[in-house]
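Protocol step 4 of 5: obtain the predicted structure for the target chain.
Materials: sequence only (see below). No template structures provided, no constraints applied. The aim of this step is simply to have a reference model before the mutagenesis design in step 5. Sequence pasted as it appears in the construct record:
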Amino acid sequence: MTNKVLKHLHNSEKNVKLLKFFIEISANKGDIVLDPFMGSGSTGEASKLCERDFIGVKLNQEIYKIIEKN
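Step 4 output (structure tokens):
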């Protein structure tokens, strides 16, 4: 999803599988995960896969639009 699209656009991409693990052990289904430095959107992708709501902050509007579409 977002990781594939942004691989060449952002240098701080995180491993979605690892993020899913952290989200699953630290938040319940339906909780909100906040990422104030959204990067490539990996945390949002992992949150969605874990059935958690997500709020992300991204200053670069070009990258944000790409993340939002995915």
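Step 4 remarks: The helical segments are 2-6, 16-26, 42-49, 61-69. The longest helix spans residues 16-26.
Proceed to step 5.
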